[in-house]
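Hello forum,

I keep getting stuck at the same step: I have a sequence, I want structure tokens, and every attempt I make locally crashes halfway through. Rather than fight my setup again tonight, could one of you with a working pipeline run this one for me? It's a single chain of 300 residues.
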Amino acid sequence: MEKILLDTDIGGDIDDAICLAYLLKEPQCELLGITTVCGESEKRAAVADAICKAAGKDIPIVAGLDTTLQPVPVYPTPEGANALEHWAHNHFEKADAPAFMYQKIKENPHEVILIGIGNMTNIATMFQKYPNAAALLKGLYVMNGYFGAERLPEPWYNWNSWADPLASKIVFATNVSVHRAIPLEVTELLTIKAQEARTLLKATSNLMNAVFDFGNAWLESSKKLTLHDPLAAVSIFYPDVCRFQRGNVCVETNEENDMGATKFSADLNGNVEVAVSVECEQFYHILSGTLNDDKTKNRE
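Reply #2:
Ran it on my machine without issues. Output:
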């Protein structure tokens, strides 16, 4: 059993909701709490709460920072939150998410794995305010970074870094016992057409109906589903689903046209392990089996 904290910008891209649903269903997961980040974090917290309630779970949730350590020219809003009217949920006000995370980590020293699947603002702020937090963590898994050979069409494609470059820089520089990053060029391999999403993940439970309700706006606009965030979660419980390389990551925080860009340097003494490949079919099997209640899925 792994004790997990989830920091998320849920409410937009459907993959955050799928990631949360997976954690709620994974038998090896004890979800200690959820913090939300990015614009209108209160609505994002309400979305997370609605999904938890749809799964019959009562999970502590804190609406975190909606401003960034380094100013960026956008204030994203959670378009999926329009579906809140269809689902029971609590209402939230912004609170101290970094303090909440630190408290959970301090109560469970060397037992908590923190997953970051939004911009890194809450996590970086925690590391700044509570310098011993990193040493108390069992692990840190983030969906962040791009290290592909081809240049991205726009810097914001590397969203979780671009949306707060300074926070991304702080997090990548932090030493954690197990510090793993799942980058964009790897998660892009897990892309399916929008109409295939309901085949892979069936809307046959209250939980999955909620996931699709909150994510339909994203699916309809993007016409595809890339399972970025679920891979970060699955790789904790099934470490062989990805292959990792150790090294160091630098983040651009000055050059406007390359803001948030990440650069990896291989180094056996580096502080970060970056995923370089994924076993796609194994991942699909695990994710669909867990969310579709497939008792025959292979457990490692």
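The first strand starts at residue 2 and ends at 8. If your local run keeps crashing, start a new thread with the error log.
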